[in-house]
Amino acid sequence: MAAAWKEFKTAMKEKKNSKKTSNTKKFDWIKDEIVVQQLSSEVCGKAQKYSRMGPRVFVPFHYDEVTFDNIKAACERFFKSKLKNNTCCDILAREQGPSCQSLEQIPNLKVIHLRIIEKAEVDSQTQSPQLEVHSKEKSTRPNINRRRTHPISLQPQQSARSTSVKSSCTFPKSLSVVHMLKLGKVIKEKPSTIIELSSFDINQMEWSPEFCCLEFVINPVVIGVGGFRKAFSATSRRDDFNTSTWVVKKYLANALENIKATNQTPEQHTRKVVQMHLLARNFAKQLQQEVCKRNNEEVYGEFMSYSNIYLGKMDDGEFVTVEEFVKGSFDKYINNDGTLCGTSTYIRMKAESLSHYSYVRSHEKLMVVDIQGSSHKLFDPEIASYELQEDDEYLFSTGNMTFSAITTFAREHNCSIYCELVGLTEFENTPE
């Protein structure tokens, strides 16, 4: 009987060891890289998921052993450009969380889900399991009823572990007297709006496969009205969006009628607006590259530029654009019909050189017009194409004045030194 029992114990021991080896074998597929999906720092939507940010990426993994710390170190090295002094990578079990603290908590190593959050948030998460363990240790003691002979303290007693916690490196916010007095009243919560964002990659010529949910606080006061849209300022608390003020642009009622008249949906037209904006931005970058290639950047001075832009979908299904706010006074240099605006300043000359360059660079197929903004920071461009339609589809937006805008610009434009610095010459023949 003793021999049989000993044999049974040996068999069980071998079985446990085999499980350990099998657990390590499931990580053998990892060689030099791991697949990582970055998620948003906060949950959004009804499902309370962390939304995906861009496509999955291959992260180099040059470690002999697969451990939780090694995976996190590889991710932080790869996302170093996105990390700030007070942020770090937080590995999640899945798109709905929770945060992982060990390798065993990661259900599937084929795809690592992570988000970038503040270190203080990670510290608060790592302390909670310690409190649970401490309470479990207490619960194992025998429950003996005793009469209390001392008052109950309302403050939690500090354990010996608290001495090892590092002090915070953050500094308290310096409040003015006005803000201090405001705290004496109930601070009303600002109404927020969830906007689903989608970005366009002009290098790959494709849209992001999925929308990313972001929470914005939109100021109801209109900050500007154009021919097609009205603009509202907005802010977001998301880590990669909280450093700028944003502008949400919505269509006017007459603009929606014009879009419908051209057999387009608001979504299709808004996507074209984003693509058109990024095309103008690409022309501005190519012009800068050409000037630098000719070693004329010091003479040319500051270059015209466009900020980034996103397609947005509101809760009610309305399609908008979301772009960075441009500070300063507004000026229009070239109208969407090709007419030159205002006096011939050096900034307008640079704007003319951009329109001229886009026409030559596109082999006389289109031109960037409706150039406007604050100094050299531009927004809301239009593209005038030589042809209005292609394959029974209207090109660009409803503000496309086609060849008439190109003809008007060519007739009014006189090349300046800024055209010469980029290698442009006068129009030989006015486009007709």
From TrEMBL:
Keyword set, alphabetical order: ATP-binding, Kinase, Nucleotide-binding, Receptor, Serine/threonine-protein kinase, Transferase
MF-aspect GO terms: ATP binding; protein serine/threonine kinase activity
Keyword Nucleotide-binding annotated: yes
Entries under Pfam families matching the protein: Alpha_kinase
Compositional bias ranges of the Polar residues kind: 152-166
Domain of life: Eukaryota
Any GO BP: myosin II filament disassembly
InterPro entries noted in UniProt: a-kinase_dom, Alpha-type_PK, Kinase-like_dom_sf
CDD domains: Alpha_kinase
PROSITE patterns: ALPHA_KINASE
Presence of the UniProt keyword Nucleotide-binding in the record: yes
Region named Disordered: 125-166
Protein name: Transient receptor potential cation channel subfamily M member 6-like
Organism name: Paramuricea clavata
